[in-house]
Design brief:
about 120 residues; alpha+beta; Ubiquitin-like (UB roll); 4 helices; globular
Amino acid sequence: MATIRFIREGIDIQCNPGENLRDLVIKEKLQLYGLKGILGNCGGAGQCSTCFVSVEGGTKNSLTPLTSVEEEKLKNRPDNWRLACQTLIKSSALILTKPQSPPSNLEELRNSAENKKLPR
C-alpha cells in the first residue's frame, strides 16, 4: 500500500501502487479542479491541462515518469507539477492539489506535512 498525503486537505489516503492519481482524488471526493477545470475538464485524457498537482515530497520514484503529454503540456510550469490524469502512483507521496492557487499558509502546511513521516 502507498499513502498519498494531500497537503491542502490535510488528509492521508491509502491506495494501491498503479492507481491513477486523478481517479484517486475523484474517488475520495477531493477538489482537484479550479473553475476552468470544473467547467471544461477533458475527463482524464490529458488534453485540458486543468488537473494540476504539485509533488511536494516523497521519493524521486514515488510516481511514474512524465508522459509525453505532460512534457508538452507542462513546458512552462514548475518541475514538480504533474497532470493528475497522467500520473500513476508507485509509492507514498506528498501532493498539493490546485497549486496554481496555493493557500496563503502553504509553507506552514508543507512543514507540518513533511514533519509527519510518510510510510513507504
